UniProtKB/TrEMBL annotation:
It comes from Bradyrhizobium erythrophlei. GO terms for molecular function: endonuclease activity; nucleic acid binding; zinc ion binding. This is HNH endonuclease. The keyword Hydrolase applies. Signal peptide: none annotated. Residues 55-101 form the HNH domain.
Length: 117
């Protein structure tokens, strides 16, 4: 997360609340049709530009057959529920785990690496 964790946590909590979700219901958000559509748009955009999907951190290009190999990560939660494609980053599983691993104590309550975010 590029901005302070404190601000990001606040944004995530506030936006979830605006969406009618509790602060620990981020998982529900990730399963919502809106987010599924949003992550698909992000992946489609990259594919339209370069012809395939790859990790924007390390450049890794997982086989297309492994649907879960690439995650869509929130660079910021400022517009959660109404994200700009620029708020998101396509990232491979190992990079994603690393990205969230920094703050395990506060994030393990909601972060489930099996989910897309
Ligand atoms: Zn990566
Ligand atoms: Zn993430």
């Amino acid at each position: 997360m590029p901005r302070s964790n404190w601000q990001e946590h606040k944004w995530r909590r506030d936006r979830l609340w605006e969406l009618g979700l509790k602060r620990d219901e981020y998982g529900k958000y990730l399963e919502s049709p809106h987010w599924q559509e949003c992550r698909k748009l992000k992946l489609d955009e990259q594919r339209d530009v370069v012809g395939y999907n790859f990790c924007e951190k390390c450049g890794r290009r997982p086989e297309a057959t492994r649907k879960t190999a690439l995650n869509v990560h929130h660079l910021t939660y400022e517009r959660l529920g109404n994200e700009l494609l620029d708020d998101l980053q396509i990232i491979c599983r190992p990079c994603h785990d690393k990205e969230h691993g920094r703050d395990l104590e506060t994030q393990k309550r909601w972060y489930d690496p099996r989910r897309f975010e």
